[in-house]
Amino acid sequence: MAKKILSILSHTEYGNLEDSDIGLFASAFAPVAGSRMTILLADEAVNYGVRGQEGSGIEIAGGKVQPGFLIETDIRSVQQADIPVYAFAEDLEARGIAPADLVEGVRTISRKDFGRFIDQFDTVWNW
User: Most exposed of 22, 57, 86, 109 (fewest Cβ within 10 Å)?
Assistant: First the structure.
């Protein structure tokens, strides 16, 4: 039976290949390794679920980073790899993000349901 992994992303450090980014990218490889992956966006990382985000305008020392980072595209890519993406409803609300603002397919859960939600996983990664 495939191992079920929950990858919780709670920091927004997109593009620097640390913490949250590693979580998002590592999550995409779990199905290849025979595991079933689910991503949960928490705290600041709920911003990753907002439609229309991209990071193609990022500049370092006056030079544009190419090709840039396409946050929405990455969220859609993990979903297409059969990796469900969830976000805490309370964290979205605290940041003024409505469910209608989310990339299609991002589901919301309440923090009060987290205990029951996490029970279905064999392993939890917290980034």
Answer: 57
